[in-house]
Each structure stands twice: as C-alpha cells, then as structure tokens.
C-alpha cells in the first residue's frame, strides 16, 4: 500500500515548517507549538494509514471477481462483478471509507475509464461494470485498486487487492449456412438421410483419425490386428480439416482466423468431426493439426474449437508464415486424409508452397479461399495464380479480398463448384 500526503497535507506541513522557523527566530513559544502541531498532523495521519492498511494480513479484504460470459467473442460485451468482503469487524469500518477503481487492458476497456456501479452493504461492496472485447486473445483484468483518505484529508492511501484475471476472447465469427450438397460426398448424404440405406451399404474400412471409436467393429479388428470401422449410415459424417495460413498483417490475420473459425463451426454444426491445422495449432504452439472435435458434445464442442484460436499469432514474416503452412501440410500428409474434406484460407503462395499443397487435392476433397489485400496489382496477380494452380491440382478455389463479409466468402466458395 502506498501512502502520500494530499494537497492539504503538504500545505499543513509547509505551514508548520514556516511557523516553526518563525517561532524560533522570534523566540515565540506559541508559534513553535503551532508549527510542531501542524507538522505532526500529517505524520500521525501517515502512521495511522499504515496501521490500518486494508491489504495487510488478517485485516485484509477478500476479493472475488466474476466475468460473464467468459470467454467472449471479439466485439461483444461481458459483465464484470467484483465483490469485496470484509474479513472482520474492523474491516467493515474500513470498507465503508474505501473508493474503488479497476484496472483493465486496453483491449477490454478501449482505452477509456471504466464506468462502474458500486453497491455497498455492511460487510460487502460490489463493483459492477461492462467491458467490450476489442481483440482476440487473453487480456488481463484487475487487480482492484482501493483508495482511502484519512478523516482530516491530509493522507491518501492507495493499494491493490485481489489477483489479476485473464479474460479469454474468441475471434468474431459469422453464422454460416449449412454446407450444400456440393461440399459433401456420398457418405455424408447417406448419413444425412438423403437416401434410404440398405444392408449392402454396410462394409468395413480402415480406421482414420477422427472416426468415432463407437463405430469400431471390434471382432473384425481383433481378427485382422488393426482397427476397422463400419462405413455405413451409422458411421457418421466424414472428417473435416480446416487449414489456416496466417498473414503478417494483424488485421488480415484476424480476418483469416474469423473466416476459418466460422467455416469450422459451420461444418461442426452440420455434424462433421472438425480439426484445425496450421502454425500454432498443434500442442506446444507448433505447426500441425489439433485433435478432432466431435459435434456430439454440443456447446462444449464449439467452445473447444474456438479455444484453439485464442492464442494463434501471425507470422513475423511472409516466408516464415509460408514455411509454417508447408510444415502443417506435411504433417497432414503423414496421416490418413483420404475421404476427408479440407477447407483452407490461404494467401498468395509461391510455386514451392503450391506444390506442397497439391497432393491434398488427390487424397481429400479440398476447398480453398485465397485472399488478396487488394492494395497492389501484384498481390491480386499472385492470388489469381495460386487459385489457378490449386484448381489444376484438384482443389476447388475462389479468390476474395481481405475484409470481405464472411458469409459472402462462404457462399462464393460453395457456389464456385457449380
């Protein structure tokens, strides 16, 4: 806790010093006494402030902070409540004289002072206010700052109470329509009930990452020595891998993350197992793929998928970002991707990176949105060359401008197959 004199305290101390010097010079005992009294008042008030330190030992105040909702999407608001509770009888008296203020990251406060409502009760005080998440990430909130001024108004005490809280912010997403029939294959239409399956539809195939373990045919797997799953209408929808290529520019990276997160949620809501792949997605922040998230978990599945995007960071340079993309594609190439759907948000790629992505079009049903910043003709030309190269490799690809409405990008991607 920090204590310092107020303007009144400094004025009293200065007046006391002057009175003391004048009294000594004139030999006036009364002036000396007045000067000593004026000097003693701030000193005694300072000692009392130290003695009743609100943040010290058992005389401290307990702080509890709640944030709802948490996590929150970028651009949305959360309600924050900070409850301060006195731990003893003396604490109730100190609580009544405290003033509260809260510290928050600029990404939560917008750089403006937080306007809070304080409700006081005999044993507690609650501070309620609203924050608006400005950017994806994890941002600090708190600790609580308490201020007290003594009875005579000569010493101000300032302390922090409680711990810092991390508020997780998901990217902004758009509710995309369910994928059309052009995006799903025959196994998906069977699972969706587009036709009536017969017993001839049922057969066994090798287990692929993302398959539901409940579909494993254990008897056949034991005979063969490797996992086999039923490939019929009960086997579920085909897995989806959403591939991120994050650009250097922060605004373009946030738009890319919002697009890929929205596409991933659209496929998850349609029943597909979904995973993310790209730089920073793999455990430990490496380049690779996350585990599949299954739709059967309901809202927890959406939260688990969005949690993967919170800590994603743009590349420091374009070559570094492209190298991370190629590494992630290489990791995908080592796993069984046959029969998967691959959705990608890519930037303009060099010939080497295009070659690295080409084989995904052979092993999986691959779709890509290729972005361009629209600031230079060269950027648009490179994006167009990337689209043509991917199409020749068996991809379905469309070219969009960074910042385009997410629903427009999605509908353009689906419409590009017609």
Automatic annotation (TrEMBL):
Domain of life: Bacteria
DUF58 domain segment(s): 204-248
Stored InterPro entries: DUF58
Keywords attached to this entry: Membrane, Transmembrane, Transmembrane helix
Organism: Cellulomonas iranensis
Spans traversing the lipid bilayer: 35-55
Record's protein name: Uncharacterized protein (DUF58 family)
């Amino acid at each position: 806790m920090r204590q310092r004199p107020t303007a009144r305290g400094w004025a009293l101390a200065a007046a006391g010093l002057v009175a003391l010097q004048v009294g000594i010079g004139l030999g006036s005992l009364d002036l000396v006494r007045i000067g000593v009294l004026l000097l003693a008042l701030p000193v005694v008030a300072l000692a009392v402030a130290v003695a009743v330190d609100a943040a010290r030992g058992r005389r401290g105040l307990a702080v509890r902070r709640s944030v709802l909702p948490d996590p929150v999407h970028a651009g949305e608001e959360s309600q924050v409540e900070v409850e301060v509770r006195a731990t003893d009888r003396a604490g109730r008296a100190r609580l009544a004289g405290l003033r509260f203020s809260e510290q928050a990251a600029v990404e939560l406060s917008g750089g403006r002072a937080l306007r809070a409502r304080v409700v006081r009760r005999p044993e507690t005080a609650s501070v309620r206010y609203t924050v608006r998440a400005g950017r994806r990430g994890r941002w600090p909130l708190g600790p609580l700052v308490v201020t007290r001024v003594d009875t005579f108004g000569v010493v101000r005490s300032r302390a922090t109470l409680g711990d810092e809280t991390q508020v997780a912010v998901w990217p902004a997403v758009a509710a995309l329509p369910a994928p059309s029939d052009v995006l799903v294959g025959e196994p998906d239409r069977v699972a969706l009930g587009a036709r009536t399956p017969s017993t001839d539809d049922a057969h066994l195939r090798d287990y692929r990452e993302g398959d539901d373990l409940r579909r494993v045919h254990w008897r056949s797997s034991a005979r063969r020595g490797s996992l086999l799953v039923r490939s019929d209408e009960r086997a579920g929808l085909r897995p989806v891998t959403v591939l991120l290529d994050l650009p250097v520019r922060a605004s373009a990276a946030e738009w890319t993350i919002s697009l890929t997160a929205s596409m991933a949620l659209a496929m998850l809501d349609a029943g597909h197992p979904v995973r993310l792949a790209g730089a920073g997605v793999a455990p430990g922040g490496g380049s690779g793929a996350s585990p599949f998230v299954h739709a059967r978990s309901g809202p927890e599945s959406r939260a688990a998928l969005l949690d993967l995007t919170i800590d994603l960071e743009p590349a420091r340079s374009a070559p570094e970002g492209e190298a991370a993309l190629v590494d992630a594609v290489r990791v995908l190439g080592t796993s069984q991707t046959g029969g998967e759907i691959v959705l990608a948000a890519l930037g303009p790629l060099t010939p080497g990176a295009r070659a690295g992505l080409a084989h995904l079009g052979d092993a999986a049903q691959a779709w890509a949105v290729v972005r361009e910043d629209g600031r230079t003709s060269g950027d648009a030309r490179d994006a167009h060359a990337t689209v043509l190269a991917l199409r020749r490799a068996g991809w379905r690809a469309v070219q969009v401008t960074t910042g385009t409405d997410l629903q427009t990008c999605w509908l353009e991607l689906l419409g590009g197959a017609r």
